[in-house]
Amino acid sequence: MATGWAGDGAVQDQIDATVKDAVERAKSLLPSGPGLTHCADCGGEIPEARRKAIPGVRLCIACQEAEDKDQAAFAGYNRRGSKDSQLR
Questions:
Q1: Which residues are within 8 A (CB) of 38 and not within 5 positions of it... i.e. 6 or more apart?
Q2: Tens of pLDDT along 44-55?
Q3: What pLDDT, on a 0 to 100 scale, did the predictor assign at position 44?
Q4: Residues 49-82, buried b or exposed e (16+ Cβ, 10 A)?
Q5: Rounded distance between C-alpha atoms, residue 59 and residue 69, angstroms
Q6: What's the rounded Cα separation, in Å, for the pair 62 and 45?
């Protein structure tokens, strides 16, 4: 693969940065604090098994699935890897 003006480790640096960004994003989405007995969005009851399995849970399964779908739309874009950011 031709890298043009890029340094010797530029491709690996880009891969490492992408992985680091994904890990930081995932960490920021983890719930924290005490879990709720009722969903923060719809008010539905959160089962005890879910509260035990996921510390800090705030959403019921249906609301969590909807939020995950919304978040997935932003997951695949690597700003560092776009040609526009490399030209600046």
A1: 44, 45, 46
A2: 999 999 998 888
A3: 95
A4: eeeeeeeebbbbeebbeeeeeeeeeeeeeeeeee
A5: 14
A6: 11
